[in-house]
Design brief:
The complex is a heterodimer of chains A (416) and B (360).
Chain A (H helix, E strand, L loop, with lengths): L1 H39 L4 E10 L13 H6 L3 H11 L5 H8 L6 H11 L7 E7 L2 H8 L15 H12 L3 E5 L2 H4 L12 H32 L4 H14 L3 H15 L7 H26 L2 H9 L4 H29 L3 H5 L20 H10 L4 H31 L4
Antiparallel strand pairs in A: 1-2, 1-3
Helix pairs in contact in A: 1-17, 9-12, 9-14, 9-16, 10-12, 11-12, 12-14, 13-14, 14-17, 16-17
Chain B lengths: L1 H16 L12 E4 L4 H13 L6 E3 L3 H8 L10 E4 L5 H9 L5 E16 L6 E2 L1 H8 L2 E4 L2 E4 L5 H4 L10 E3 L5 H12 L4 H5 L14 E3 L4 H10 L4 E5 H6 L4 E3 L1 E2 L6 H5 L6 E9 L9 H8 L2 H4 L4 H4 L7 H13 L7 H5 L19
Parallel strand pairs in B: 1-2, 1-3, 5-12, 8-9, 8-10
Antiparallel strand pairs in B: 3-13, 4-10, 4-11, 4-13, 6-7
The chains are: A mainly alpha (416), B alpha/beta (360).
């Protein structure tokens, strides 16, 4: 009896230890998530200042009849200054500079976009929500203290008093920050967006998939279906497993030395980044594909061969369709891993200030993780929330990719 | 089968469709180099982009890494501009020379001060360079003899300093800030020479865990300094400016770093900042000269300039005139790669505080 109760007690203990281990890891994940979400959520919101905007025809180079192209080309810097002066009358030159700094430096771009999307607006007066500068935004969000001595602040006492009077008039409000999703990188945190990095990662993953999936699939078909198992396959198998464990920075060095050094491919483009990520994903795909090819029962192959199919027909008509879900699952998981990799991108130069949104795999670009790295390095306080928001986005994509992998495995995989 | 061929087709299409713009010549400036120059260079790049050029890209790989890439050759595959937080070294000029990069224009565009900072919540420090050296060096002089660094707290070095443990976060060896710090502080404050007769070991940091090497990520250093008020770190003035609510600089030789004291080099840890232009690329890749002209314009480095506002300290008027002359005429004004490889520089004997460091 005592023996049994002892065994039961030890079982209980073990259960609690295991539970504790799980809770501990969950605890760290929750802390990490909380930290990222609380700092990052601010990036989706921007502070705006309400202003009455008179589209003064004499301060605008274009007219209501101008084409969209001409509107996009014209400068609205003077109009922006004019509007600030109209909304804050009787400013000395010195104070005007201070007040102008409270609005985004890209005020003129906001005006341009408004004119482009609202025809016949020139000559009229409207009320607009103008994006505030990042420094002001950070004060309003409480990320930057206002009770420290003036010399330690980026917003001085005069600007604070203007802010308070605007706030008292109900002119300060918060809206959704669309720019974060539609802009490329910028040195003004309020206008910096993630789209450029997103497109960079997209092109890189496209190249990665187009290279690694066919090559990986064919290699695994050859190893599983066409070659007789022996010393050679053992040797190859050991090497593939080895490659899967090689640190990613080594692949980056390979890209730098071979693709850029020997083949003369350009620096900092998604084509090279994607190929490097492809090298990295290749072993994962081969291992997953081989496992799923092995899962197809021999009776299927024998049946096909028995009715006179050639080896190739057997493989392409029967084996591959049955094993494809397994290969795809492996590929998606491999690509999710590639999406989060920074080190190889670092080596091939995809960590850079790139403002223009890349239009193809041969345009200079950064990737999502390298953009996060760059923002985390920036001194401006406004980039802190952008960093966390970038991480949130990256996590979101990883969750989506991994979910797709799980769904494919659940729904499409054939059980024997 | 059909699925597979569709996939293969998609792969092919992505390869063919992908090249959009820059297949032949590049029309976008490619900048590499110092992460201290990065905030200024990128703001300037953005302004150039707003004036109708393609916005240049800036790859912050450190001053040393930037020089290596810049000096690797002439042609669209190589960077056009490199940012540097210290002057080009003779060794690097030699590399440039070997690879045919012989037409280089040196643009000294502003000053920066390395601040020796710590948390706002700590006591303000007033240090000399000798004291900083004594705290950080591997070997120091005690009672006329060279010994392993025995100091563990600042008040052991100078009894007027608080009883704070010695712990300093430093930049990696590839960093130009570290090179500049080593030259301005470790070598300048070195006490070994008087005893041993050589400056060997002046720039060796102690290895007992009190000097902690961090990556190029200055934001991380700021965070670490906030966590522990007794820790120190060094970085460029712009970081201090952006983190004024968290950090304070130490007075060095009785001088507080500020725009004015850095500009006059009264602050002993002031240093010039550079960009180097590849003259052979000017006219091939559009906007290089305009980029440099914008960077030294009154709009950028004047009293209320956009680079001054984020921490660049001005230069003396004669150097401003000189550099504007250089960027306008594209005449390097005596700067020559072959000379630099032999440690010769036109300003070497001009008597500026930074003169001795040129083409070292």
């Amino acid at each position: 009896m005592t023996d049994l109760s002892k065994r039961l007690a030890s079982e209980k203990r073990f259960k609690y230890f295991a539970m504790f281990a799980m809770c501990l890891s969950l605890f760290f994940v929750v802390i990490l998530m909380l930290k990222i979400f609380t700092t990052g959520s601010g990036a989706f919101i921007r502070t705006t200042i309400e202003a009455s905007v008179y589209f003064d025809p004499s301060a605008i180079e274009v007219t209501n009849e101008s084409s969209v192209k001409a509107i996009n080309k014209a400068s609205y810097v003077n109009l922006a200054d004019q509007i600030v002066k109209d909304n804050h009358p009787n400013l000395s030159d010195e104070k005007f500079i201070l007040v102008r700094e409270m609005y985004t430096r890209k005020f003129d771009f906001q005006l341009r976009d408004y004119i482009a999307s609202n025809p016949n607006i020139i000559g009229k007066t409207v009320t607009m929500e103008i994006t505030a500068s990042s420094d002001l935004d950070q004060i309003v969000k409480g990320n930057y203290p206002r009770d420290v001595p003036e010399a330690q602040r980026k917003i001085n006492d005069y600007q604070l008093s203007v802010l308070d009077s605007l706030d008292a008039d109900g002119k300060i409000s918060s809206t959704f920050n669309l720019w974060f999703f539609t802009n490329g990188d910028s040195r003004d945190p309020e206008t910096a967006g993630i789209l450029g990095a997103l497109m960079g990662s997209f092109y890189a993953l496209l190249i990665c998939f187009s290279f690694a999936f066919p090559v990986g699939l064919l290699a695994s078909i050859y190893l599983e279906e066409f070659v007789r198992p022996g010393k050679l396959t053992d040797f190859i198998e050991v090497n593939i497993n080895n490659l899967a464990a090689v640190p990613s920075i080594v692949y980056g060095l390979l890209g730098l030395g071979m693709l850029i050094g020997v083949f003369g491919m350009p620096y900092q483009v998604p084509l090279v980044g994607g190929l490097v990520l492809g090298f990295m994903t290749l072993p994962t795909i081969i291992i997953a594909s081989r496992a799923s090819l092995r899962g197809v029962p021999p009776s299927i192959r024998e049946g096909a061969l028995a009715v006179g199919a050639t080896k190739t027909q057997t493989v392409f008509h029967h084996v591959i369709p049955l094993s494809l879900p397994g290969s795809l699952t492996g590929t998606i998981i491999g690509m999710a891993q590639a999406l989060g990799e920074t080190a190889p991108l670092l080596m091939v130069g995809m960590v850079a200030f790139v403002m223009d949104i890349p239009g193809g795999a041969l345009d200079p670009a950064t990737g999502l993780p390298s953009q996060i790295y760059l923002w985390s390095e920036s001194a401006e306080r406004g980039f802190l929330e952008k960093t966390s928001a970038g991480i949130m986005l990256l996590l979101g994509f990883l969750i989506i990719m991994n979910t797709i992998a799980v769904i494919i495995r659940r729904k499409l995989e054939v059980k024997w | 089968m059909r699925k597979l061929s569709a996939l293969a087709l998609a792969a092919l299409a992505s390869f063919i469709l992908a090249p959009s713009s820059e297949v032949e010549a590049r029309d976008q400036i490619n900048i590499v180099g110092s992460s201290t120059v990065y905030p200024y260079g990128t703001v300037n790049a953005q302004r150039l982009g707003e004036s109708g050029y393609k916005t240049p890209t800036y790859n912050p790989i450190g001053t040393g890494g930037g020089m290596k890439a810049f000096c690797a050759g002439v042609g669209v595959d190589y960077p056009d501009i490199t940012g540097a937080s210290r002057p080009m070294k003779a060794k690097e000029a030699k590399l440039c020379q070997e690879n045919g990069v012989t037409n280089v224009i040196e643009v000294m565009w502003a000053n920066d001060g390395i601040t020796f900072s710590h948390s706002n919540e700590a006591v303000e420090f007033e240090l000399t360079r000798e004291e900083i050296f004594t705290a950080m060096a591997a070997k120091v002089v005690v009672d006329g003899e060279v010994v392993e660094n025995p100091y563990t707290s600042w008040n052991q070095i100078n009894s007027s300093l608080p009883d704070y443990k010695i712990e300093v976060l430093v930049a990696p060896p590839t960093s130009g800030t570290r090179d500049a710090f080593d030259g301005k502080v470790m070598e300048a404050g070195c006490t070994l020479e008087a005893v041993t007769g050589s400056d060997d070991g002046c720039t060796d940091y102690r290895e007992d865990g009190r000097i902690i090497e961090m990556g190029e990520n200055d934001t991380l250093i700021v965070q670490k300094l906030v966590e522990d008020v007794e820790r120190f770190g060094y970085f460029g003035y712009s970081y201090l400016k952006d983190n004024g609510d968290k950090l304070q600089p130490s007075k060095v030789e009785g001088v507080m770093p500020s725009g004015a004291t850095i500009a006059s080099y009264e602050y002993p840890m002031a240093r010039p900042l550079f960009i180097y232009l590849k003259a052979d690329h000017i006219g091939v890749i559009p906007g290089i000269q305009e980029f440099a002209q914008m960077m030294v314009s009154d709009n950028a480095i004047g009293d209320n300039g956009y680079l001054t506002k984020i921490g660049a300290a001005p230069m003396v008027p004669e150097l401003v005139d000189r550099v504007r002359n250089i960027t306008d005429s594209l005449d390097p004004m005596g700067f020559d790669i072959a000379d630099c490889a032999n440690k010769v520089h036109p300003l070497k004997d001009a008597g500026y505080a930074f003169s001795s460091g040129l083409c070292k």
